[in-house]
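Hello,

Our lab assistant flagged a job as stuck in the queue for most of the afternoon. It eventually completed. Since we weren't sure the result was trustworthy after the delay, we are filing this so someone can double-check. Below is the sequence as submitted and the structure that was eventually returned. Let us know if re-running is recommended.
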Amino acid sequence: MPVTIGQYEYTLDTKNRLVVPSRYRDLLAEEKGSYFIVARGFDGCLFLLLPSQWEKFLQEMQERAKSIPDGAKARDFKRMVFTTATEAPLDDQGRILIQQNQKEYAGLKKDVVITGAGNKAEIWDAKRWVKTSQAAATAFQELAKDMDL
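-- returned structure --
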């Protein structure tokens, strides 16, 4: 399965279109895909997934949902995933459309950061990403010490 890496800075245009990094577009072409999946992520970001990553995510979600004793919580989680997910085809300029509800959830203004997260990419408002990445850097250092890396 493809791995998404790197950090890319873009601007969301007035029509809510966002350029997808060329590396990710190349991965989509390798899969012979015609669209990405954009879905509500965690911590105030959006997930950007290739079709193969989306399928893997769904499989993992279904498996993990079986172990959740509270069926109502599992159903609510699935609802949030599926109701916020959209197919986002690329236009001729390599852009995707971010839906208004997705934009509002992620607090996307103008400056946007797309970050690789291994099994998916994440779309962040640039200011929110600065705060999140600072906290992540601290956790990274602490975990590296715990793991003796």
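-- support follow-up --
The delay was a queue issue, not a problem with the job. The result is valid. The mean pLDDT is 91. DSSP finds five helices and eight strands in the chain.
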